Amino acid sequence: MDILIKKINNQFIFYDKEIEIDIEELFLKGDFQNQKKDNVTLINDNKWIKKHYLRKGLMSFLGDLYMYKSVKNTRSYKEFSLLNSLYKKEFPTCKPIMGWITRNLVTYTADLIMEYIPSVDLKTYILQSKINEKDWYLIGKLIFKLHKQNIFHGDLNITNILVNEKNMEDKFLLIDFDKSKRKFLIDNTDRNINLERIAKSLKKNNLFDKNNFNKILEGYYISS
Length: 224
Hints:
Blueprint: E1 3-8, E2 11-16, H1 23-29, E3 40-43, E4 48-52, E5 66-67, H2 75-88, E6 96-104, E7 107-115, E8 120-121, H3 122-127, H4 133-148, E9 151-152, E10 161-163, E11 172-174, E12 181-182, H5 188-204, H6 210-223
Antiparallel strand pairs: 1-2, 2-6, 3-4, 4-7, 5-7, 6-7, 8-10, 9-12, 10-11
Helix pairs in contact: 4-6
């Protein structure tokens, strides 16, 4: 297993054993900590993103508390594990640095650190009128590439697709794999749910265009 888990007081940290920085030393020094409980903050001179897991929707009254079962069943570990696997396979996403949970009797809070990539989300990119026909095609290819790894994205929307104009080889990246799943095989139902989620997100933001969405489908199905 590539992921190491270490217990430090009431916290469990986890990271890839091949990472070339001393994660435990930095964690003990407090380099990953800050006082904010925002969902996402920049740390380490804006080189890393810290994600603090917060409940949303009907369960938002619980804030950042989750029921503890085991480290490997926590939200930050699951997302770290997926990200780590995808990154090692050169899938375009953010590099995971480390994650941890803080346990308190039957509950825990969770955090994840990732490399920050200067970019804008797809929604912003569209609103800036920078997107072109080929871009829609590449987005379809990106989604197919994810499904080829048998990963079902838990919330595939236009704010979870990033655009890095400085890297034309991997111009589009996928992020936020919380609630995503590795499946034995991605089937047509999974494909349709993810593709329809993109369409729904575009429509919700009044950015849907049938011709553009057909280009996403073309990029997806020609890649298959």
